[in-house]
Amino acid sequence: MLKIGLTGGIGAGKSEVSRLLAAHGAVIVDSDVIAREVVAPGTAGLDAVAAEFGEGVLAADGSLDRPALGAIVFADPERLRALNAIVHPLVRARSAELEAAAAPDAVVVHDVPLLAENGLGPLYDRVIVVDAADEVRVERLVRLRGMTEEEARARMAAQASRADRLAIADLVIDNSGPLEELAPRVAEVWEQLTAGR
Fold first, then answer.
1. Are 124 and 63 within 8 A, CB to CB?
2. Contact status, residue 168 vs residue 115, Cβ threshold 8 Å
3. Cα(85)–Cα(90) distance, rounded to whole angstroms?
4. With left for phi above 0 and alpha for psi between -120 and 50, is residue 131 left, alpha or beta?
5. Distance in angstroms (rounded) separating the CA atoms of residues 39 and 49
6. Alpha-carbon gap, residue 28 to 9, rounded angstroms
7. pTM over 0.85
């Protein structure tokens, strides 16, 4: 089994790279998907988040009101740490279960947005960083996710810097250009990962 850590700042295109790697045959363990699962209605994770942040982070149907929670944690590093202390151990446990279920010869790609922030690089055989210039990322977040420029910059500031992410990279996928340039670059990286296996 080859364990890959895949990361990139918000708006860099990590999700698209993950999708392309899956198309090549990678087993994807997506921390964002798991993070949603562990705070779904009826879970201990959601109960812990509500206890920490109050009923105001719950929607009328009892699910997590992500925009309300985001407004709290992305403006306050201490509150973000409190959220991470609840969610990250749950995500790690579920990720380990999914990895253990993969075939022995699988390429398992752990899609981890906060890999650099949490010092997780040593857990993987290789770390791939999806990179794009800050201004490109801001433009994408405004255009594709409807954020204001200020919201986009605040989300970016809550994450590791580009330099910090690039410092832990074994492989870098530059995604500053148009989408059609991404698939050939991901194919090259896949070849590098699977050569001689």
1. no
2. yes
3. 9
4. beta
5. 8
6. 18
7. no
Contacts of 106 (CB under 8 A, 6+ apart): 1, 2, 26, 27
Rounded CA separation 178/190 (Å)? 20
What is the C-alpha to C-alpha distance for residues 69 and 66, in angstroms, rounded to an integer?
5
**Structural contact between residues 90 and 171, judged by C-beta atoms closer than 8 angstroms:** no
Give strand pairing partners of 173: 130
Residue 106, beta-bridge partner list: none
List the structure tokens of 105: 């010869």
Q: Is the pLDDT of residue 97 over 90?
A: yes
Beta bridge mates, 6? 111, 128
Tokens of 103: 């075939």
Question: Is-contact 190 23, C-beta < 8 A?
Answer: no
Cβ–Cβ under 8 Å, residues 26 and 38 = no
* pLDDT band at residue 197 using 50, 70 and 90 as cut-offs: low
